[in-house]
Structures are given as C-alpha cells and as structure tokens.
Amino acid sequence: MSKERQAHKREEIRNLILTTAREIISRDGVQALSIRKITKTIDYSPAIVYHYFKDKNEIIELLVSDGYKRILDLISKVNKNEDEPEKEIEEVFLNYIEGALSFSEEYKAFILNGDSEVLKKTTVLKEGISKISPTIKLLTDAIQRGIGKGRFMPGNAELTAQIMWTSAFGLIIKIIFEKNISEQQKNRLIEQYLKIMFNGILIRKEEK
Amino acid sequence: MSKERQAHKREEIRNLILTTAREIISRDGVQALSIRKITKTIDYSPAIVYHYFKDKNEIIELLVSDGYKRILDLISKVNKNEDEPEKEIEEVFLNYIEGALSFSEEYKAFILNGDSEVLKKTTVLKEGISKISPTIKLLTDAIQRGIGKGRFMPGNAELTAQIMWTSAFGLIIKIIFEKNISEQQKNRLIEQYLKIMFNGILIRKEEK
Amino acid sequence: MSKERQAHKREEIRNLILTTAREIISRDGVQALSIRKITKTIDYSPAIVYHYFKDKNEIIELLVSDGYKRILDLISKVNKNEDEPEKEIEEVFLNYIEGALSFSEEYKAFILNGDSEVLKKTTVLKEGISKISPTIKLLTDAIQRGIGKGRFMPGNAELTAQIMWTSAFGLIIKIIFEKNISEQQKNRLIEQYLKIMFNGILIRKEEK
Amino acid sequence: MSKERQAHKREEIRNLILTTAREIISRDGVQALSIRKITKTIDYSPAIVYHYFKDKNEIIELLVSDGYKRILDLISKVNKNEDEPEKEIEEVFLNYIEGALSFSEEYKAFILNGDSEVLKKTTVLKEGISKISPTIKLLTDAIQRGIGKGRFMPGNAELTAQIMWTSAFGLIIKIIFEKNISEQQKNRLIEQYLKIMFNGILIRKEEK
DNA sequence: GATGAATGAGAATTCATTCAT
DNA sequence: CATGAATGAATTCTCATTCAT
Fold first, then answer.
1. Fold of the domain spanning C63-207
2. To bridge B146 with a disulfide, which of A136, B152, D16, D60 should be the other Cys (CB 3.0-4.6 Å)?
C-alpha cells in the first residue's frame, strides 16, 4: 500500500471513530459516550481507539472544538453593516439560531456539557468576556457601534450582548428539547425574539 | 403497631430516601445520583430502595415533579398589580430567577430532563400552551392586560410570554453552568435582562 | 439464618478472600495479586470483593499488618535476660529467622514490597528508628543494656541493631530465594551468622 | 550496504533497545518496564523489538546477566594485600556496596529476580559454592589467607564469606528500598557494617 | 419490612504480541 | 528492515438490580 493510501486509510478510521462518537453524543448525550459503545458500533476492539487518540478526553475535545468552530463560522460570515448595526446583529442571530438548530443534538450536548474543559470554551457571562470570546466580542462591538451612532440606547454593550446571547440560547435549547415544534411556530418565536430584543415590550412615555 | 402508625413509618422512610436523593442532586448534579450513595447516607442497604420505589428512575421523576410544584409556587405568590402589569411581571421573573438559582442543581436536572414524561410538564413553546401551562398562562394574562391598558406594545401575548420565559431560562441555565459568576455580576445581568425585555435596545424613531 | 450464623458466614468469606490473596502473593509476589485472580480462584464475581473490602489496597494492607503482627509476636515472646543480654538477642534472632522462614513467601513479598504504605511499616534504616519501630527498639534496648553492663563494645546501639537486623534480613532473603538449601546448611549459616555478629559486638574477657 | 555494515547497524539498534530498557529499569524499577515505553523513547514501533529479541523476557535476562558481569568487574579489580587480607576484604565490600548502590534499580532487579536461569548465577549459599562463584571464591580465599596468617579466627572460611556477603546484601537491599536514607546515614551504616564484620572475624592482639 | 449476598454489565486503560505489508 | 493495524486479555472499580432469607 502506498504511503498516501495508508495515510488515507488511517484518516478514514480516525474519522469513523469521531463520527461514531458524534452520533452517540447526539443521540444519548455526551455523558453517555463510552469507548466500548464506539468500538462496538464500528466492530473493532476497544483498544483500537488508543491507536488513534490519546484517550477518551481527546475525542471529546476534538468534537467540542470542532463544534465550536462550526458555530463560529456561522457567525463570522455575517456582513458588516455600518449604518444599521441592528441589521447586522439580526443577521448574526438568525444565522446562529438556524445553525444551532441544524445540528441541534450536538449543540445541546456541547453547550450543556458540565465538563470544565468544555466550559472554558463556552463561557459567556464573566465580566470582560467580550475581550476573550470571539462571539461575544463581535456582538459587543456591533452594539457599541449602534450606541455610538445614536441608534441604540446607551448602556453597557457587553451586558447587552450577554443578555441577547443567553436569550437566544434559552430559545434554542427549548426548541431542541421540545421536539415537536412546527416550523411555523419556530419562525414566529424567532421573529418575536428579535422584535423584543430590539424594541422591548413597553411603550415608552415619549412615544405617547 | 397500628395501621396508621405503620403507614406513617413507611412514609417517613420514603421521604428520607427522597430528601437524601434531592440533597445529592443539589450537591453533585443528577448524573451523580446513585442508589448506593443514597443508602450509604441514610445507613440502609441499597435493596431497601426497591421496597419503596420501582427503580432509580421513579425517584428522579418524583423529585422532578416536586421541583416543578415548587417553581409554580414561587410564581403564584406574586401580587396582582392591575395598573402597572409590568411591575407584576418583573416580580414574577425576579421570583422565578432567584428561586431557580436557589435550588439550581435541581432546577437544572428538572428543566433539562429529556424524559418525555417530564417534558410534558415543562413544555413552553407549543402554540396554545398558555391554556395549559399555569406559568405561561399567568404571564400571558399579565401581558394581555398590559396591552389592553395601552402600556405594552400590541401583539401576540402568548408569543411574548414564551420569549420572556425562554430568555430568562437561558440566563438561569448559563448562570448555573458557569459556576463562578459573582453575586454582583449576576445582579447586573438580571437587571439588564429586565431592562431589555421591557425596553429593547433600539431607540425608536418617535423618541427622537 | 441466625445473626451469629450470618456473621459467621460473612467472616468466612472475608477470610476466604484474604487467604486466597495471601496464597497468590506467596506464590507469585504481591505485584501479581489481582482482584480477578482472587475471585476466579474462589469462583465468585470480581465485584464481590468490594462487598467485603473497600478496595484492593485494603486487602494488601490487612495482609501486611497481619504479617507484621506475626513477626512482632515472634520476637516479643522472648524472655528478658538481664545478666547476659546476648542470650536474649540470640533468642530474638533465632525466633525471627525461624519464624520468617516458616512463612517465607509471605515474608519475602511484604518485606520486599515497594509500596509506600507497606514501606512505612518495614522501615529500619532511618536515624531514630529505634524510637518508632518496636523491633528495632527491642534490639537497641538490649544492646544498650549490654553496653551498660560492660559486655558489649561501646558504640551507637541503634546502628548496631540496624546492622544486625539487615544482616539477618539478607541471610533470610537469600535462603528464601535459593530454594534448595539443605536444613543442615541452613543451620550452619544461622550459627555462623550469630557467631560473627556476637564476636563482633562482644567485649571478650581477655580485653578487660 | 556491506554485510559488516549491516551487522553493525543491527547491533546498534539492539544496543539502543537494551540501553533504553536499562534506563527505564534504573529509573522506575523492573516492573515498570514495558515494550511500549522502550519504543516510544527511541521513536520506533513496538513491533521492532520482536525483530531483535524473542520477547520482553529475553531483554530482561540479557540485562540481568550484563549486570552480573558488571558487579564481578567491581570486585575483581581489587588489589591483593598479602599481609593484611582484611584490608583487601574491606576494599572488596566497599567497592561492591558502592557499585551496587550506584546502579541500584538494576542491582535490585538482578539480585531479586526469581527466574531460575538468573538464580543459577546469583546463588551464594550452597555448600561448595566457593568453587563455583567467582565472587565467593575471591572472598573465601582472602579469608582463608587471613586465617592462615593467624589474623582471623579459625573456622570455615566459606561459611564466613557467605555470611559477610549476605549481610552486605541485606544492607544494600534495605538502603535501596528505603529511598530516603541520607548520604551521611548511609556511610555510618556501611562503616558499622564493616566494624561489626571485622571485629567479629579478626583475632585481636590481646587474644594471642 | 429489611438486608446481605451476589452478580452481570459496563466504565477507562494498558500491555505484549502477531501479522500483513 | 520496519511498522501500523489490530486484538485479546488484563487491570481496578462502580452501579443498578435481584433474590433468598
């Protein structure tokens, strides 16, 4: 077998393991992942895993950072909109929500993973997180821009980003858990989410 | 021993088991609950559990529906405020958030439980849910009142209730998972949550 | 089954496990001891061990302290001999050597065990050990007495005790390893050991 | 590549494997030696070992008999001292003890190896061994010379050699096992060992 | 009503070894 | 000559559950 062929084969089995792991996590949650389950599915001996990965943790971490990257990609493709940052933010969240829902079980598994390694990457609420997390930074920047332009209410942009994010997150998780939500209802919810975020529910005095 | 006495004793041990299970879940999370841990704590043999419960799952389910009741209690104690429904809603959420955070591990276990039995009770997003779920009904009513009184923006009150609920839910879950959020930061986030819900982030044209 | 009967049965199985473990250690060394080997021998499932013992370590520790106790017993039965401490010391070593050889494999396993828990109990060479180890204390005291009485060469009694002990130890270990030493040769070696030791520490009449 | 060149290369890798194995044993003890550890260190695949050695055991045995040779070398370099054989013997033991301690893990592995092949080489206690083992022969001869010269107490020189050897052995093994012995205490112990040994076998002036 | 005994299944790893290439 | 793939057998330990008593 040629070297490329061999490397190819190797990569194939690595991917087989990763894919199987991902499927198990999607189906049963990350805590249900076990080496045995993986290898039973692909009809190999459990020891084979240690041929391709250091340990179970390496697999989880690979899957996590992969999922993380996918989510980042969803957001970073958004077009800058200098004049109307709300349009930009809307696009971010539409992308994010649609994307998360499209690989929902994985999203659920990772974002709700209590593992401290995973948590490091998914932290959102800490003060100053907008300097660390690319997602929150992107949001915070857009909000700050909106404030600067006099389009958004003045205030702490990071806090606003955090609430917008956790609110979207809550909606996504609920949609994932409640499996039978119709497409139509889903869209109405997303629309309402955006409406409230941008306008709130209160009619302000000045408006009267 | 009289029959009542016996029944009483029986009830006592059942409660002992349930209470211990609840403590373990609160401390270490639901996935750390094991029959052995329960019975070691109360100094009984593991087998005793099967005298009082079908299996481990029954215990978890009981705990979950109990937690559900407690959450409902948190909300239903809120004082009606006819003139300013937003005050009422604010109180609902403050109660709800504080309450959920005060027994956080239980809340997490309960609300993120994938079991279909449990899901029936925690459903929130379905259209028409405001006629079924007391929580959402309460919220929807208050919002409807606000709209009627011309204080809230017109629109679908149920949808608004759902978004407000899922948004609070997302914030709560994130606070629970990211263990090291300071009390101060927590309060700032809750405050910002309420501010956005009520006012949104956008400065509306009419306000200029 | 009566309570005593039950307790008896329990004790029986505990002992069965311990005895089997001891046999394995004697045959194959302490590092070859495994839960599976024990339970395969006694035809039980591996899990049973954890019914009777916390973990594998507890078994080893029990066996070790048991062996330790046995050795201590060998020595502590020795009669004090105030006028001629050398007689007393001789008896100590005769007892010790004979005793160690009578459960030789166990002695070997434990005394050569590199496990730090075990080492704590079998330490001999540290300065000041005569205040800790009963064995060395007993020896040191007797030697000190001999020095005081003008029968032994003056010097550091603890050091002397340590060398006498390690020398006996070396002899014992070698006898155990070289399985085919005849009874006669064994006795000649022990005799020679004592002869060298004593003529070494004893001040002979002519020197006075 | 020429045949010699090839053989040379082959020998080189063999030695690389052996050297690495020796290092692992010295560092972590013989029971920690594993094929994987060897080959990971030298950046080869585990399978390579089976090209050069039958199995893991062959490696250990080679290492052991090599260690034996090294110990022999330590002793055989000692200078003959016709007039004062005790000086010669002292040098032998000082060399032996220092040498053994300088590659302690190997010494331990070697001397405590229960393998019958190895035991043949390390036997010491059999009657008549002084005609077979070079070490004991060397010692016995020196002692015999001492007796002949009227400097040592008359008696069976082989037995004396055996006791001197096993006593040194016991001290060495204990020093190796009890890892934290200070250099100072070590030297005191060795000194005491020699003092006891010699005052034991030496006929002192007063006795003449 | 209570429990001790017992287990089968499963968890993650590690290891020496074989074999086709 | 060298190796990557693969495995079977071990290792310790945990757990939910059953059952005879």
1. Tetracycline Repressor; domain 2 (1.10.357)
2. B152
